[in-house]
């Protein structure tokens, strides 16, 4: 079950990396001084990536917990 724990850790870290990317992208968009329509369009595009990264990190944490319980 150690393999499941390490795989879950890798998946969780990938999800966290995606969340950090979303934060940096949104911060850059706010600093760019875009008008409301352009900022809203950019934020709507990032929201899909944000949800995917959050899902990925949650799945990874579930894998880690399953590996600990089964091991």
Spatial separation of the terminal alpha carbons? 5 Å
Largest sheet: none
Compute the number of strand runs.
Answer: 0
Q: DSSP strand (E) fraction? A: under 5%
Query: Globular, elongated, flat, extended or rod-shaped: what is the shape?
Result: rod-shaped
Low-confidence stretches at least 5 residues in length (pLDDT < 50)? none
What is the arithmetic mean of pLDDT? 94
- Percentage of residues assigned to helices: over 70%
Number of domains: 1
- Oligomer state of the chains in this structure: single chain
The number of helical elements comes to 2
Cα gyration radius (Å): 16 Å
- SS content category: mainly alpha
Question: In sequence order, what are the helices and strands, one letter per element?
Answer: HH
What does this structure look like?
The protein is an all-alpha fold. It has one domain (2-70). It is 92% helix and 0% strand. It has 2 helices and no strands. The chain has helices at residues 2-31, 36-70. α1 runs antiparallel to α2. The model has no long low-confidence stretch (mean pLDDT 94).
Secondary-structure map with pairings?
Blueprint: H1 2-31, H2 36-70
Q: What attributes characterize this protein structure?
A:
mainly alpha, 2 helices, 92% helix
Task: Describe the structure concisely.
By secondary structure, the protein is mainly alpha-helical.
């Amino acid at each position: 079950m150690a393999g499941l724990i390490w795989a879950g850790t890798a998946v969780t870290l990938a999800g966290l990396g995606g969340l950090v990317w979303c934060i940096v992208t949104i911060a850059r968009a706010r600093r760019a001084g875009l008008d409301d329509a352009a900022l809203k369009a950019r934020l709507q595009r990032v929201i899909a990536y944000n949800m995917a990264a959050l899902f990925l990190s949650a799945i990874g944490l579930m894998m880690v917990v399953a590996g600990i319980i089964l091991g």
